[in-house]
Specification:
heterodimer; A: 568 residues; alpha+beta; two-stranded antiparallel sheet; 24 helices; 14% strand; B: 243 residues; 8-stranded mixed sheet; 39% helix
Chain lengths: 568, 243
Amino acid sequence: MISDSNLSNLSVEFMRPPEQVMRLDRMGSSHQTRLSFMRSLIRRMSKQNWKFECLRRDIDNDGFGVSVYAVTTPLRTYSLIAFTQDIPPKKRTDRVIAEVWDATFNLFDGIPTQADIDYLANNTPKQEGGRYRPSELVLARANKSLRVFEHVISTLAKGNQPDIELLSSVGYLMRTTAVYGSGKFGCADRAKIADREECKGAFQIELLAVYLIRWFTIDLAEHLARKRGGDKAVKFEPHIRQFIGVGNATGLGMAPFLLKHPVLIHNLVMAKESALARVRSMETPLKGTLEKFTKSLIQVSQHLREWSVEDEVQTTRIDRLKDEIESLSHWCGDQINLFKPYPWNGIYQYVEDRFSLECQEMVVSLIIEPHGSLVDDLAETMSSASTPKLVAEMPLSQLKGIVKDYYVWATSIDFTLTESQHHFWYYSEDKLEPRFGSRDVDEGSEQEMPLAIGRDAHELNHALFSASDETLVGEFVLSFPKFRHIIRRIQNTLQRPYSEVQDNLLDESMRPLDLLRFKLAFFGASKFDPKSDLWTRISMYQGAPMPDQLSNPDCDNWFFPVTPKQVI
Amino acid sequence: MATEQLTISLNEVLFFFTRAGFGVNAPIGISEDFASSNMWIAANGFDPSSCSIEALNNLDSHASDLAVELKKSDSQVHFVNPNNVYLSSLIASVSVVDWINIGSRDVELIVKNVDSPLLVIAAMGANQCSGWQAIWLDESNYEYLVNFTEPGVWEMVSSNTQPIESSKGGSMIIRPLVETKKYPANAVLKKFVTIEKKEKILQTGVKVGEHWPGIYDYFSRCLVKSTAESRASGAGAGMVDTD
């Protein structure tokens, strides 16, 4: 049984176990929730009345130059510094190995001086090729959507609003292809800002940078339309502006990060599962919540109709999801199904017994959504500053017990089969780009990243057979130092049961995409658009309030956004 | 990245030193602890590359290795390399910390002929050891004393001019802290409050000097040569992506 100080005994009974939750197929079906990092950041901006201001816009008629956008929180100011340039279309790639981008950014700690901007002008456009200082909190870059960017400027310049169908089909004006924080390339370490009020929770500073990038892209488009159209030009209608998100292309880099931070994974999942358990354990629904839920099914149906991707697997999943949400709507229409004790658990159980993982996870999001007062406190538990330590004084009898209780998924895999070790993960010498290789095809398996958690646990299990129960871990690793890494992970799992992905990450059938989607859903991404098993495009902040809308009473109501003209 | 004068972040210390350890064939778990020790070194204002390059060079050239034998008596536990080379500080450091965590405070730990004693100290510091003392005489006959007086606070006493990071080939005695009232007249005591030092480093970054390229070279051994095939398909996305 999962225990947590934030849960009552009743809620604990409704927790889904790690062996159900931490499977790749379910992780790869994740959706954003109200605990997602973008959602909690927007709530904080609104609650604390953050102020936004464009401090500088030194750009030419084509939009190339430098701009500075600042946000002032109750305690300090942060600035997005944006460098924009002209690049050949053929040089636009989402890959790490790209060398030029339409726009490059830093989130600066404070307001930059001219000397700071001069320094960054020589570094930021080079991205990984530049060096940064502790005053730079984030490094990022973005490319234009060629289809949308020019269309938007030309239509606004003529005094018209852009084609909403086109806007909806892409969802953004620019797409970020990397957002680096936490000490990358010399930027500030996470520890520098971890105790700041506005940085509590996970990835808040990186997502602040992305929010400012979104604002920058929209502001840039309106500015260029004014330059081109003069008095005829118009701005976006507010509801259209709000519908524009910022794109993101996410590749393999996110997967190793996730696997290297087991404490963080546990904390993220624990928060979400605790929220679900709190809702499911309510015998009587809070006032108005069931109505909000049934209404949200209508909105989500619309969202699904607009979630269109080229990937065949995802298209099939979306089609099935549409049917399942419709079935659920009908079921919920019969009041006898909802007006009984533990209605939320009834809804969850109905869906779990009948529908796809994609639908199950969407319904998890939907039933958590109306319960802000019940679950929003959990958002602040979704980060981690600790690293697991080896518990040297643990007897092997206890370690064997943990392996037996928590790692059956690993010890039961037959690693003598070629397909069980088909893949390996590595860093390429090419800009340290993370890549996913096939052992029988690609070179470099000797330099494999240490992400073979299942295989390592399996090998340890064998080594433990012949070791005495009374031996201490500290003594065992003296003779077998190669197991230090996996023992530390396994010991951590005892305290943090959601820390491990319970599938073989080397298997031939393994799709890194599942890991990417899992993490991106925690970020708050929507409209996952897989381009292969190794990368995906997404929209971020689509439907989120713009800076001038943060004081609106409904500013937290932007989940599963739909095209403005079709808002219900 | 492999330039002579550079400022890096603590997270980069973790990233590069983990893989540098792995690059000289230390197991990943040992390499992770080695990198944590280097973060502690950096947080205390030292250049981690100059503190660690010797230990990596030794492993790479087989002047040291990771073999360690434990010899116990009633009052002492000896950590000894059985192969007549230096005891690598990468294994000595984690072994000492493990033994401290196992809990016996009534024995002395004797670490024989360890190549870079500061890495053992760093592992103790990174693991918040408190109430312990380490003394050693290195192969140049320089003597050092380090006291871990309370969590996050340590002091170093030495009467010689050789920096502690250059101390090599010492046989260390690690024991519960004994309060020393008097040091030799020419001894210099330096006190470090790690959290205060770290706060400064977070504002300035970690300066690494002449030995950084050596660390980077070992790190680079973890990188896989790029081929046309892996470049085209190893990361999934295409070489030209528009929308």
